[in-house]
Amino acid sequence: xxxxxxxxxxxxxxxxxxxxxxxxxxxxxxxxxxxxxxxxxxxxxxxxxxxxxxxxxxxxxxxxxxxxxxxxxxxxxxxxxxxxxxxxxxxxxxxxxxxxxxxxxxxxxxxxxxxxxxxxxxxxxxxxxxxxxxxxxxxxxxxxxxxxxxxxxxxxxxxxxxxxxxxxxxx
Length: 171
Hints:
mainly alpha
């Protein structure tokens, strides 16, 4: 994630924070994830996979947008803290929903390879996302562009759901 480096380097107007505060913000996000995981998963089990993916994308987009605007204010630290709430709910919604969508959309005889491909998506993103966001941060001096790009990607993907009936085929 670009968040730790964004926090310790600061942004356009948001001052940098020390590593301890950065760690506390990330810990806050993980604690919220633990808190939200069961109730969100239970709630989403009563809805379609497409609904769960829409909720996840919407909340990821909101979280990224909040991080974008947090860099514009001197008191952006508070906005960054608030952004962890939609991020945590989005993660709680995404993890089980993504797995369920792969199982539902792939032929039963291909479920194993489909799950392996989902795992590879996580592995590939863990390699490339820090590299790409690091280059952007190094070239601009802050992460506003990273958060803005992620906001646009989330909401553009969400709009594509309106056009397609299959959540997997629309991504």
